[in-house]
Amino acid sequence: MFTGIDEVDWDSLRHAHGSAEDVPGWLRALASADTAERATALDGMYGALHHEGRVYDSTLACVPFLFALAAREEVADRGCIVELLVSIGGGSGEDGQRDRRAWEAVRAGAGVFAALAGDPDPAVRRAAAGALVRFLDDPPRVLELLRRWLPAERDDSVLAALTEALGLFVQRYPAHADGALDLLAEQSAPPYAPGRRLAALGQLALRAPGRLPADLVPAAVRLLHQRSAQRLPAREFSGTDTLVRRIRRLRPSDEQGAALLRTLHGALGDRVDDRIALLVGQLTSPDPVDRCNAVWMSAGLFRGWRGAYDGPVRLLGAQLRTDQDRLRDAAVSVLAELHALARPAADELHALVAARPDLWTHRWERSSPTLGGPLKALARSGDPRAVPPLAQLLAGPAAPAGLGFEVAHLGRAAAALAPALRHRLGRIPLASPGAARLAIPLLTAIRAVGDREAVPELLRLLSDAPDGPGAREEIVGQVIETLAELGAAAQAAPLLRPLLRTRHAAVAAGTLWSADGDASAVLPVLRGELTRADPGLRRSAARQLGRLGPAARGALPELRRLARSGPARERIPAACALWRITGDPDPVRPLFRAAWTADARTRPAIARCLTAMGPAAAPLRDLITEELTRPRRHTAHEGAFGSHDIPDDEELLRTCREVLAGL
């Protein structure tokens, strides 16, 4: 296994953490009989030789020795070694010269993967299946190996890997795809086991949708239920609620089943109605493990795609009646992300909140309490039945951090909480490092409930907060916006004027203008802010100038320059301000059209401006109507999701409908 290892000048080679002198020890440890020693060596290999997916000269030097280890049956954990080889090779030589050399090095030894098809260790066979397709550059031979392997294989996890390997073969070798597709079609029908048929249907959906049965979704649901009836019951986690235990509890207990359905959902893509039907079939399974997998899959569907979700959401609510913590917690977690879309499940959420006050808060080990998932989801749905338990928490000695953010979703329905919110705001020690963390959620809630009686506390925040970094710097902008929304700008004017010389100049200037209408006092400040290096300050100044309307004509040269250059997210506030100041839509409509297409994040601001334009927005009607027919959420443009993606996209859809109504 290690012939020639001492002839390599490891000291002159490098890995992520410096000299590769420690690599021979890791390689030898991979062959150790000691489990901990092997695990430590594998960690070292990933952490240094293949750190964050990179390859080094020492990585390339290791490849022959890793192949030698993978080929020896007496070596334990060889499946992990094959996976490391696959990771090093990547599967493409297009990412740079060194990565290409790694790909070629693994491809040169790919004959070992073919030999591993008959290995006694299922983990080795499972890893070798995909490796064979990725690196053995002989499509007819690969297909024949897979054809002979399939009927001889008995391990379910290896069969799933072989099915996935056939799909990968179709993708990599289109000229030879028919034989692989025939194998997949054969496996998707009786007499094969339900799990195997599901896996084949998923690969056909990904690679050859035309070869799918017409009744794909009903067939998939039937197979899912049949597979579940044959599976052993899952084990529930119990004991003290630690973070690790909670993470384990929220993970699918049937990883293979989750992967099968995830593949099928992904293959269906924008066929949202079919995906909803599949999800309903999962959520109505008699098996709680299937339902738990469905709950987690629903999160990706809801976040990424628009659809008629009342039915699935009601079924999510039905999962709250279970006595299984894993399933209930999963459903609560997803419902909390839905905000107003969770309303069909509001009755079930309220029932859980009423029956389980112990779930109103959650406290992690050695940390402050946070608002519990059921109450958070109920409040975010806008249901006023969340107000009484929130009032009890606010009256207690330690209200959960961030509670004000959730109160804000209730709007005026939470007006009864205003005194408690004011009281808590008044008790915040402004010199404390945590003052902003405590104040900002409360300010958000006070704006939402419209509590004018909070004005004295807001003025205290402006006048008493210490200068410089800290509470004042972080909360002043929020305080000013709250005063403006409450119509208390005039009372705050003496405190706002000194802020015209700070980073809060723009919002202070806009609020002062709303108090006295004196543009001459604030226009020079706002024009100066348009020239600042910080794009956030420039955007804020543009928005405030738009509030001034025709009184801001003096800033037109700067706004026009800003609207002509820079990123779309900076140009759009300037374009909106131009229209509000001049009333002329012709110069800004082309900017709106270009930005709408170039950067989906600009669409909400553009749509709001088009709403105000009324009939003048008619030339952009096509953008609005097309947006309303798109199945993909505009917040899914980067593939990464945030906690407000769903409500932000739903708000865009509401605004688009308002635009059409105003044309």
Task: Summarize the structure in short.
It contains 36 helices and four strands.
What distinguishing features does this structure have?
64% helix, 36 helices, mainly alpha, globular, 663 residues, single chain, two-stranded antiparallel sheet, two-stranded antiparallel ribbon, 4 strands
Topology, pairings included?
Blueprint: E1 14-15, E2 18-19, H1 23-29, H2 35-49, H3 57-70, H4 78-89, H5 97-108, H6 111-115, H7 122-135, H8 139-152, H9 156-172, H10 177-187, H11 194-207, H12 216-229, H13 243-250, H14 255-268, H15 272-283, H16 288-304, H17 310-318, H18 325-338, H19 346-355, E3 361-363, E4 369-371, H20 373-380, H21 387-395, H22 403-408, H23 418-426, H24 435-449, H25 455-464, H26 471-485, H27 489-496, H28 505-516, H29 519-529, H30 535-548, H31 556-564, H32 568-582, H33 589-598, H34 603-613, H35 621-629, H36 645-662
Antiparallel strand pairs: 1-2, 3-4
Helix pairs in contact: 1-2, 3-4, 3-5, 4-5, 4-7, 7-9, 8-9, 9-10, 9-11, 10-11, 11-12, 11-14, 12-15, 14-16, 15-16, 15-17, 16-18, 18-20, 19-20, 23-24, 24-26, 25-26, 26-28, 27-28, 28-29, 28-30, 29-30, 30-32, 31-32, 32-33, 34-36, 35-36
